[in-house]
Design goal:
Length: 369
């Protein structure tokens, strides 16, 4: 049988076989032969369909559920409800790694899947190119037999996703977090963002309900291990708070052929940590070259302090001068907390008509209710 005809038959079979999946949702993909999971560590790749050379090194392979259980790089969104297969992870359509050639799935009789792409009569199958039982594999497009078979595993309570905390303060555990999926938290866990900085303090606010996809946050955890902090991945998205000033990164890939990492600048970046006073805050890292993957961080001006303590909104506002007090005489210029001029020569009544928030007026921090 000609290769082009075989590809056409596989394509038709593949669409119907996708009904075996549980529908649009979040999955992990594990190699049937080696047991290694796919990690999406980059958003770059290519394939030359004339020479059939493919660069799929953005997809790495590692063994062990303990490692995969807390890593957003392993979470892949799969959807075929529109008739066109979509695989996305880390803000990236996986087809973009193959020059926007659609990746297809074909289910085998044993329940495993082939993942492949086709063009001009040429078909390339994703496979684990590293034989043996080592922890790390190598994504390839020339593997054979069981090395090109994949298990597609729904993320659920049995094959869970748990948050791994990296900061401990007074017996409580926290994790900076940035991932391309929405989620809800169980009772006891909380998600926060930072809305404002003033001096050595920052205002943190809680997100309730669905935490949106692609929002940089930090999470208060229940315990020190991912199994203590299982979260529920959901398809519906939450509301993104407009005053979140945290930033986030997906990738920390420093490979020579796929460098995709964010350099850490101690003058303008702060990472979640413990202040010298033993409080939770965003601090200057002592030894950090690149920001870790899937981490939130805080950008600051070069003259901001090395340590910025996190306060609840109530605590943050408590240190603000009441506008009803006589804090200035006559009209004053009003600035936001970033030092940007809001309005010039405002009276107290005019300041009261500004949108709710915190401002600097007459050299004082004031709160407009």
């Amino acid at each position: 049988m000609k290769k082009g005809l075989l590809v056409a038959i596989i394509s038709l079979i593949g669409l119907s076989a996708l009904a075996e999946l549980t529908g649009a949702g979040y999955y992990r993909i594990q190699n049937f032969k080696t047991g290694r999971y796919i990690y999406v560590t980059d958003n770059r790749g290519s394939i030359n369909w004339q020479t059939t050379d493919a660069d799929v090194s953005a997809l790495k392979l590692f063994k062990g559920f303990e490692k995969a259980s807390s890593n957003p790089e392993t979470i892949i969104y799969i959807d075929n409800t529109s008739g066109v297969l979509t695989l996305e992870a880390q803000g990236t359509r996986l087809s973009a790694l193959l020059d926007d050639t659609q990746i297809k799935l074909y289910q085998n009789s044993d329940g495993t899947y082939y993942a492949y792409a086709s063009k001009s009569g040429v078909t390339k199958y994703l496979s684990d190119g590293a034989q043996g039982s080592g922890e790390e594999g190598r994504m390839a497009t020339n593997g054979n037999g069981d090395y090109r078979k994949w298990l597609i595993i729904p993320v659920n309570e049995g094959d869970y996703f748990g948050v791994l905390p990296t900061v401990e303060v007074n017996g409580e555990f926290f994790a900076p977090f940035y991932a391309d999926f929405a989620f809800t938290l169980p009772e006891g866990m909380k998600a926060f963002f930072v809305s404002q900085i003033y001096g050595k303090n920052a205002c943190m606010k809680e997100i309730t309900g669905v935490v949106p996809a692609a929002i940089p946050v930090f999470i208060k955890c229940d315990g020190p291990s991912p199994a203590d902090n299982i979260i529920n991945l959901v398809l519906q998205n939450g509301s993104f708070p407009s005053d979140n000033i945290l930033k986030g990164v997906y990738f920390d890939n420093t490979g020579y052929n796929h460098f995709n990492a964010t350099s850490y600048d101690p003058a303008t970046m702060r990472v979640l940590g413990v202040t010298s006073e033993g409080k939770l805050g965003f601090v200057t890292a002592s030894e950090l070259t690149y920001l870790p993957a899937n981490q939130s961080y805080l950008t600051v001006s070069a003259d901001d302090p090395a340590e910025i303590t996190l306060l609840s909104e109530e605590e943050f506002i408590a240190g603000i001068t009441d506008l009803d007090a006589e804090v200035f005489e006559g009209p004053v210029d009003v600035y936001n907390l970033n030092g940007i001029l809001v309005r010039k020569n405002l009276t107290k009544n005019e300041i009261n008509n500004l949108p709710k928030g915190i401002y600097i007026a007459g050299g004082k921090k004031i709160y407009v209710k």
